[in-house]
Specification:
The protein is of the alpha+beta class. It is built from 8 helices and 2 strands, in the order H-H-H-H-H-H-E-E-H-H.
């Protein structure tokens, strides 16, 4: 395997910041004018790809953030059952009694005291949950259930007919 040049090594360092090849090129000292072409070209080089794979694997091990872990977290949000927030009498469970999967979907809690000494004082609990639809969309996209790309396939015959029609105007 070919050894990286110092500029390519710098590109890899910069690419690991935001995974933006064009910006990584510019920060690594390549011409800003051609960075949008050079970035993808560098990513296509075997030696750069190998070095990036090593760096990505090390980062994954260091942070313990993997695709599987992210997908498991999305699944917690996507398939959460709100009944797990309440006891058998329909009263909210104290936060410390929630299991880990249920606590993971709680994005925020608001507790407000209401009432007065004449009518009595009580508390209102508002539980803000993470975005279930967003999580479902992310899981579905991961599974390839959505096709966000428009595929236009023009045959030669159609192209010829369109060309002739355009020439008649």
């Amino acid at each position: 395997m070919r050894k990286l040049t110092p500029k390519q090594a710098r590109f890899i360092d910069e690419y690991m910041i935001d995974l933006n090849a064009t910006q990584a090129c510019i920060r690594a000292g390549y011409s800003a004018r051609t960075a949008d072409r050079i970035g993808p070209e560098l990513l296509g080089k075997t030696c750069v790809q190998a070095a990036l794979s090593v760096r990505m694997k090390k980062r994954e091990e260091r942070t313990e953030i993997t695709q599987d872990r992210v997908l498991r977290e999305f699944a917690k949000l996507a398939f959460f059952d709100p009944r797990k927030l309440f006891d058998a009498d329909g009263k909210p469970l104290p936060i410390h009694q929630l299991d880990d999967d249920t606590a993971a979907v709680v994005a925020g809690l608001d507790v407000a005291s209401v009432g007065n000494s004449d009518m009595g004082v009580g508390e209102v609990l508002k539980i803000k949950l993470a975005d279930k639809k967003g999580a479902l969309d992310s899981v579905a996209r991961h599974l390839g259930m959505f096709n966000d790309k428009l595929n236009i396939n023009v045959t030669d015959a159609l192209a010829e007919r369109l060309s002739r029609a355009k020439g008649r105007n």
